Structures are given as C-alpha cells and as structure tokens.
Amino acid sequence: MKSRTCFVCQTCGAQESKWLGRCPGCDAWNSFVEERVGPAPSDDEARLGLTSTEGARLYADVEMAQMDRLSLGINELDRVLGGGAVPGSLVLLGGEPGIGKSTLLLQAAARVAAVSGPVLYCSGEESEHQIKVRGERLGIGQAPLFLFAETCLERILEEIARRQPALIVIDSVQTVFSPKLQSAPGSIGQIREAATQLLFSAKSHHIPTFLVGHVTKDGALAGPKTLEHIVDTVLYFEGERYQSHRIVRAVKNRYGAVSELGVFEMTDGGLQPVANPSQLFLAERSAGAPGSAVLCCVEGSRPILVEVQALVSTSTYGTARRTASGIDQHRLGLLLAVLEKRVGLNVSGDDVFVNIAGGMNVNEPAADLGIVAAVASSVRNRPIDASTAVFGEVGLAGEVRGISQAALRVREAAQLGFRRCVVPAANHEKLDIEDFETIPVRAVDEALDVLIA
Ligand code: TYD
Ligand code: MG
Prior knowledge:
It is a single chain. This protein is of the alpha/beta class. It has 13 helices and 21 strands. Helices cover about 30% and strands about 25% of the residues. The strands form 4 sheets. Strands 6-5-7-8-4-9-10-11-12 form a 9-stranded mixed beta sheet, sandwiched between helices. The chain has a 7-stranded mixed beta sheet with strand order 15-16-14-13-17-20-21. Helix 5 packs parallel to helix 6 (about 190-205) and helix 9 crosses helix 10 (about 370-380). The longest helix is centred in the middle third of the chain and has 18 residues, at about 190-205. The model has no long low-confidence stretch (mean pLDDT about 90). The site of thymidine-5'-diphosphate (TYD) has 15 residues, from helix 3 and helix 4.
C-alpha cells in the first residue's frame, strides 16, 4: 500500500485531504499540519527499542539498564547532557543563526570519531567543501568523520543503517524533507516527520543523534514546539553575537538535570570550553564603582558569580524609564517598588538601568538582593566593598528570604577570593567556611546598612 498523507487540525483533530486556512470543525486558523497515514508501521518502526512484546511487566522485574554514555570529548558539552550522550537518545540543539551550532557539533563529531568510531555528519546547509574549510580551522585530523550533504530523509536513514556510526549529526532538521509528504521543506509537517523518523532510527540502532534546530527571533524553535516533545533532550545555545562567550543550556533532559549549563568561548580555533565561568564574568569588573554588586547564582548544579550593574539618573523626559538586560523587567519593577516603600529610597522620577555584565541571563529570585544593592549603591553614589558578594530573595514586605544551595554559592565566592558574603538569615547557620565571613540579614534595609555603609 502506498503511503498517504492527510492534514490534521492541531486544535481539534479534524482530518482533511487538503490544507485549509481555517478548520471547519473548530474555526481555528492556520491549524492544519500534514501527517502521514498508513501503511501500518514497518517492523523496524514498531520495534522502537521501547515497545515490549510481552505486555506489561512488574516494576521489580525490570532490570537496571546499563547506560554507557558516549563522551563527546568536550567536557562542557558532556556536562550539559548529564555526563555524555546516552545511546539511542535524540538531542536537539537550538540557537540563532551564526551562534556556533555547526562549529560545536563538528568539533564534537571529530573528537568522537577519533576515539569511538565513525561519525556521520549530515548537512543540508553547507557543502562538503564548506565543512572541510571549517574543519581545517578547527584542526580536524584523520578521524573517520563521514560528511553527507543530503536533505532527503529516506537517503539519510539508509546511510545511517549502512554505516552504523557511533554518532549522528543532522545539520539542520529544518532542511531535511521527505518526498512522501506534499508540504514544503521546513514546514511543520516535514520537520515533525523528520524528527519522528530519526527518533525511530536512533532508538532502533542505539546511536545518539543530534539535531540542529534554528530558532526564530522571538526565541522559539522555528517550526513546532512539538519538536521539543519528540526529542529526549533540548539544548539551547545562547550568547550575544558580539561577545565571544557562548552558553549551552539544557531546557529538557530525560537523562539528566535541566538548566545545567556549559560555557564556551568562540576563538579562531573554534569553541573552547571555559572551566571557570565566574572568572570570565567578573573579568572586567569595575570594582569600587558605585552601582556594581557581585551576586552568586546557581545554574543547574553550577554556581556562577556575576556582576550586576545599575545606573540611576535623573529622568529628562516625563516618564521615567526602567531598562533591564539579563534580568526580568517586571522583577526589576517589583524590586524598585520594595526599595521605595520599605527602604524609603525614592527612584520614581529617575531612569533606572540594570544590566548583568557579560550578557548572562539571571532568572533566579536569589539575584534580588544583589540587584537591590546595586540600585541603592548607584542612588547613594557609594560603592559596595569589592570583596563582598551577595545573594537572597527579596519579598514584598522588604524581608530577605532564604534560598536553595546557599553553601554552594558561598564556597564559590570563597574560592574566587571574596572575603565576605551577605546572606539571608534563614540560610546562615549551615554556612561555615574558614577565613570567610557570612553576614546574615533579615530585611533589605539591614542588608543595605551592611553593604553601603
Ligand atoms: P556556525 O557554527 O556556522 O553557526 P551556526 O551553525 O549556529 O549558524 O558559527 C559561525 C560563526 O562562528 C561565524 O560567525 C564565525 C565564527 N567562528 C569563529 O569565530 N571561529 C571558528 O573557528 C569558527 C569555525 C567559526
Ligand atoms: Mg550552521
């Protein structure tokens, strides 16, 4: 039987043989996506590596699977994955164009090829020659790395079955298409079909498979959110285009912790892992200048010290501006309101700019106290002691609340040569580090008295 496709409304599930702009069933606009119907899945597809033929089994009888993770030869990348790539896992690496996705995966592919056997690098965006030019810059030697400039899904699957590589890279999933579907390459139906088939292939051959995915301007993965549901792990590549460091972050991981992150620096010879990101983010710190505070945040299991800078200046126009980069704008508004009501620091007629130096994004509440301190320091035009770090959540009543993993943060600060840390009183008793002073505070005004004496 020939395979057939139909268009399915993603809102109500109605099926049509043609694409329609509006669903006649539920009146949703632009909700039809092409899907393949029949023939029944082949044996290969049915044997996903997951489905069992014996029916349900008792939990106690299921043996622990030995997951020998494949090291990608780049420790920062291994760390984000939870200690290497799991055999048969499908990993999506998303990021804006030009951020370094192809570079990172080519480097990883070469390292794996040199140590663990052949690697298949399928590229639908660049020719073999272009990849070779990049490879020469990265110093890829004689490793068994197979380049395959192909966009046809079926041919990629054949090549995978024939070569049985140790690792597969598909750059990018948006360029892969199946002639069995009528939709254009890059459409949701095509992307989903490609991801699903590659998932089957990864699971049945037990080969870790990496998909490169482009993200749109607003930060979503181009095409479907559904891609995130299909794959096992979603990594995002972040970073400012004009700064050299890049961050890879896990936002979903079936085999490890999420929000784990790896830090890289883009150099002439490709991406280099940064072992101590705190040093990088504090490198150009304007120690001793008013409006600067160092806060200890934790990303995944990793403590990172970053500098938060605030500038408060008299507003020349009618409405005062609040500009935040690296932190949430609404959170800043809330913290300024707390400063005004609970500490009596009036900034309502001033422009307030807050920036996390180095282009980091900090979204944890533990950053609150550092932000508040930086703003207050700028308003009073008095610097915060350069060897003091700070963390803590600020509540609406002006109280400083305890946060998680306090010991980890304090230890990082001590390691980097800081001598004092202002911490929430709730966290204080568990912190005891030699030659390091921790100062417990209960409220914002108390913290400011300590920090901006
Ligand atoms: P690339 O991996 O092509 O990005 P993506 O696949 O995410 O679109 O990265 C391209 C950028 O990286 C490009 O602007 C050049 C820069 N680059 C370096 O700075 N050093 C290098 O060694 C390489 C290979 C690229
Ligand atoms: Mg690329």
